[in-house]
Amino acid sequence: MIMAMKAKSIERSKQRSKSVPRVGSAEPKERSGSGRIRQARQQLPIRRPERIDLEEINKSVAAKLQPLEQVTQSILASVEERKGGGAPLLKATCKDFVVGRASCAASSVVTLFLDRIEYKFSHATQGRIDMVMYVKDLLTPVLDAKSQAFKFRVGKPLRHFIDSYDCTDPAHSLVITFHEKADMEQFKEALSSSCKVALQMVQ
Question: Could you tell me which residues belong to the region Disordered (predicted)?
Answer without folding.
Answer: 1-45
